[in-house]
Amino acid sequence: MNAQNLNAPSAYFMAAVTETPESHTLSVLVDNEPGVLARVIGLFSGRGYNIDSLTVSETEHEKHLSRITIVTTGTPLVIEQIHHQLERLVPIHRVTNLTVEARGRNFEKPLERELALIKVAGVGEKRLEALRLADAFRATVIDATAEHFVFEITGRTNKVDQFISILKPLGLVEVSRSGVAALQRGPEGL
Amino acid sequence: MKREMTGAEMVLQALKDQGVEHVFGYPGGAVLPIYDEIIQQDAVRHVLVRHEQGAGHAAEGYARSTGKPGVVLVTSGPGATNMVTALADAMLDSIPMVCITGQVPTNLIGNDAFQECDTVGITRPCTKHNWLVRRVEDLPRILHEAFYVATTGRPGPVVIDIPKDVQFATGEYEGPRHVAHKSYRPRVKGDMDAIRRAVELLSRARRPIFYTGGGVINSGPAACQLLRELIELTGAPITSTLMGLGAFPASGKQWLGMLGMHGTYEANMAMHDCDVMINIGARFDDRITGRLDAFSPNSLKVHVDIDPSSINKTVTVDIPIVGDVAHVLEDMVRLWRTGSHQIDKAALDGWWSQIDGWRARNSLAYRPSEDIIMPQYAIQRLYEKTKGRETYVSTEVGQHQMWAAQFFGFEEPNHWLTSGGLGTMGYGLPAAIGAQVAHPEALCVDIAGDASILMNIQEMSTAVQFGLPVKIFILNNQYMGMVRQWQQLLHGNRLSHSYMESLPDFVKLAEAYGGHGIRVDKPADLDAALDEMIATPKPVIFDCRVANLTNCFPMIPSGKAHNEMLLPDEANDEAIANAISADGKALV
């Protein structure tokens, strides 16, 4: 028995894990009512699923609809489970696996963007270097003093990751990230 | 039809409009306005329990034995938290239940007020859905929606948390209307193409088996009738989970008995060796499958379930069919008939002779005794004595539960009430009370263990107050028998805290509550005592002293496959001590 089996939710899952985990982006349309986010998060924590990123905001005010975008990791079977478990929640209107849909259209991923606010403090050459990098990454300066910058950057998760890691030796102070917002390509909606 | 009324009046009006006749509950500060309405009417009868958990299980027993939702009413704080076990139980066994809880007034929510708890937060993972009603305008809609959600699709428990000021507030009441729910739309009709493929697969099978579960019973009497029809048409063998007992008659020729950890040898071997498995309304639970990577390795599998999340959860299947069992079975029976399908006769005969070979192994055998009552014998006698009577059997959890499942033959659905998924000790007595409330003329027996019965024994008082002549049949071996069995299997026979010291005198206990007590310890006296129990028109506690150290076999030891059962005649001390490998010991 390997370590994975010992950590399995039920001790009966002794079958060897043959599928490899993949990252999927789910778009979930829900009633914007109290507790709906707790239901979604509770489902993930209660059943031991991963949340890599989660964003939520009201998207259709008149209909009281919110859209939750969840990036999760799991084997294809686990992803299918997550999809169906989400659909069991009463206030959920629709669950769409954007990653699967994107693959169906021969794209690797759906449209995904993240916004980050990044504070860097420093003087002299490091400060100039940070500004040059921001330019290269098309980040904008939204706040500054003689000792610091706050950059705003939008892009795919790996681009934001890369920008942050480059800024680390240049006086990175703190970061706030929005999590992933995602839509399907093409003219149709959810 | 709209009328002005208070929130508390709305609750009672909605219960009436939903056809509710009985409510199980316990009053408290935050539900007093509703209780004040209850006493001023006669349409909804209230059964006062002695502990809120008892109300929950009574509602489950009521629901399970009638097919209607069970309704409970409890107060805020401890009233709600005491309900949690029953809600979790109903969640895992898919029992329709509507639980109304009182809550502190809205302006006090979040203030750590007296008897306040976050009821919707606490019950969120153990309900199908729950609501905190903050405005009386929303109350009628939520009340009706709650019944709709609890009873449709895969049934389950729901909670409506009503703050006290909302109960006092006045608003417009509206009766139930048939409007499509904005997001909840369970699917009942199965995909015809998948059903067609399933029927064709079945017709080409050489070693078919039907594996059915509680979903058949939840789907209703029509589903059970259609199942019986399909089994007869195909000539295939059928086994069932604990939750599904009664959907197919135990006296039927094609019945193999229950499957799983304590199922029969023939049922488990047939599951292991079949080439086509038709799962109807069961969920490949770990008690059923045993070791997953060796579960029925050579079969093509069909899975009918109303809940898409049950499909491919633990066992991947070849033909999934999402839909209500009765709807899908209706299509299957029709297609089978119109297609003049038939399973190859020679193959089926061969399969049956193989099954008869396993049957001949007589896996439920036990060594009879003239001096001591064997627990299996006690159940057999109880079964014989109650045959031909309208009998509802509930159980607690443990060895007695498995023996009841093995030795009590159920002919009809809705007559077997047991806590399958959650395994709740203390379930049986309140469940029997719930069944008795629904069926006053029937015989309602709780087959219990000496440990389990003490978990909700206070409900004897409820039974006496409401004239509910439930029978508590305790297989008293002075142990938590199943715990002890596992300690023997897994922990070198070190019986850590599984011996029940200082058990009460159950006869005196029965009398103290105003019931009748019977004690028997000789097999020769059993029949007469059972007659006495059945004839007594009030609650009875029957203290049946059985062999202390008997274990429940056959058994699939943890981490083993269906074809690696431990049979009773092989289960000597050494076999028991070595039955489970080091890997298996980590399992539950």
From TrEMBL, chain A:
This is Acetolactate synthase small subunit. Pathway: Amino-acid biosynthesis; L-isoleucine biosynthesis; L-isoleucine from 2-oxobutanoate: step 1/4; Amino-acid biosynthesis; L-valine biosynthesis; L-valine from pyruvate: step 1/4. InterPro entries: Acetalactate_synth_ssu, Acetolactate_synth/TF_NikR_C, Acetolactate_synth_ssu_C, ACT-like_dom_sf, ACT_dom, AHAS_ACT, AHAS_small-like_ACT. CDD domains: ACT_AHAS (cd04878). Belongs to the acetolactate synthase small subunit family. GO terms for cellular component: cytosol. The lineage of its organism: Bacteria, Pseudomonadati, Pseudomonadota, Alphaproteobacteria, Hyphomicrobiales. Keywords: Amino-acid biosynthesis, Branched-chain amino acid biosynthesis, Transferase. It holds the Pfam family ALS_ss_C. SUPFAM superfamilies: ACT-like (SSF55021). It comes from Stappia taiwanensis. The gene is ilvN. Dimer of large and small chains. Catalyzes the conversion of 2 pyruvate molecules into acetolactate in the first common step of the biosynthetic pathway of the branched-amino acids such as leucine, isoleucine, and valine. It is an enzyme of class 2 (transferase). NCBIfam families: acolac_sm, PRK11895.1.
TrEMBL record, chain B:
The keyword ATP-binding does not apply. It is an enzyme of class 2 (transferase). Residues 195-331 form the Thiamine pyrophosphate enzyme central domain. One of its GO terms (molecular function) is thiamine pyrophosphate binding. Keywords: Amino-acid biosynthesis, Branched-chain amino acid biosynthesis, FAD, Flavoprotein, Magnesium, Metal-binding, Thiamine pyrophosphate, Transferase. Residues 397-544 form the Thiamine pyrophosphate enzyme TPP-binding domain. Residues 5-121 form the Thiamine pyrophosphate enzyme N-terminal TPP-binding domain. Its cofactor is Mg(2+); thiamine diphosphate. It catalyses: 2 pyruvate + H(+) = (2S)-2-acetolactate + CO2. The keyword Amino-acid biosynthesis applies. Pathway: Amino-acid biosynthesis; L-isoleucine biosynthesis; L-isoleucine from 2-oxobutanoate: step 1/4; Amino-acid biosynthesis; L-valine biosynthesis; L-valine from pyruvate: step 1/4. Its EC number is 2.2.1.6. InterPro entries: Acetolactate_synth_lsu, AHAS_TPP, DHS-like_NAD/FAD-binding_dom, THDP-binding, Thiamin_PyroP_enz_cen_dom, Thiamin_PyroP_enz_TPP-bd_dom, TPP-bd_CS, TPP_enz. One of its GO terms (biological process) is L-valine biosynthetic process. GO terms for cellular component: acetolactate synthase complex. Binds 1 Mg(2+) ion per subunit. Binds 1 thiamine pyrophosphate per subunit. CDD domains: TPP_AHAS, TPP_PYR_POX_like. Belongs to the TPP enzyme family. This is Acetolactate synthase. It comes from Stappia taiwanensis.
